[in-house]
Amino acid sequence: FTAGAPFSGKRVALSKFDFTGQQLETNYLLYPDNVDRRLYPSDIIASNDSLTIAYFGDINGSSGNWTQGLIRLDTTGAVAWARDFNVGGSGQEHGTKIIATSFGYVIAGRTNLTTPKRLFLMAVSQSGNLLWTKSYGDPSQEQTLVDYYASNLVDMGDGYLMTGMVDNGGG
Fold this sequence. Notes:
Blueprint: E1 9-10, E2 12-17, E3 23-29, E4 37-47, E5 50-58, E6 67-73, E7 79-85, E8 93-100, E9 104-111, E10 119-125, E11 130-136, E12 143-144, E13 153-155, E14 160-162, E15 165-166
């Protein structure tokens, strides 16, 4: 939270700590703390001398209409690019894990406003271009995650493994 605001003050920020846990600095990314935005950072990875942060939320205000986004920082900590994606048109995507791949990134997550809720994978190039999105599971069963911030995606070299949970019975 920023400035104590409930929803309109949620931002993606990056904090740096020393080896003893002392906080050295915090920087807001994309929007300052006095602008109405509702963004939730969900994961961070270091790859190719840069940082990439996954987030979800509303880049236009503080509504419940969420998209999935990525922020790539260069070696100086400056934003190299930021992209926002609407995954499958659900109206509220919740990314949980990002992994680096040979072509860029794969993001795992779930949709919140579809019926039923679905798990998804999204592929993004190293320059931030959307390559593909896919949702998974039986259309009659809700797919979800036990822990929304769990590590539920791994790269196996020839594909990916993703964990999830079926809420409405079945397999």
